[in-house]
Amino acid sequence: MPTVRHNPAAIAVATLIYFFLGAAWFTMFMNPWLAGIGRTMAELKASGAPPWLGYVVALVMTAILAIALSWVIQATGPQTAARGATIAAAVWFGFVFTTWATEYAFEARGIPILAINTGYPLVGMLLMGLVLGGWKAKPRAA
Fold first, then answer.
1. Residue 29 domain-assigned?
2. Residue 24 maps to a domain
3. pLDDT confidence bin for 45, thresholds 50/70/90
């Protein structure tokens, strides 16, 4: 098995790209997303949860995703941008899309909300894969 050496800078950049993509994604798709989840912005704001909590959780979970994806990319073969994107797409399809699609089938949710909620991780993970696969950690000094 190849040696896994995480690149903290690549992980930080990949995390921030995914996180800010989420801000743009859900701003762009806000109205269909709200319709898809059957809520209004007023209802979400009235939930009682502090407004900052979602952002903190999203940032921490995104960092964990970047670390896990970095490990899978490195542990399964050569570290390149193309392989990083390929691995990210495979992980997305095998874990993210399949899980959401199954849940949405039982909840009788439509294709548009499935596309919004799974499209964001697909695009985000592809970008993460490009960064994490293409940006190798510098070799350690001997």
1. yes
2. yes
3. confident
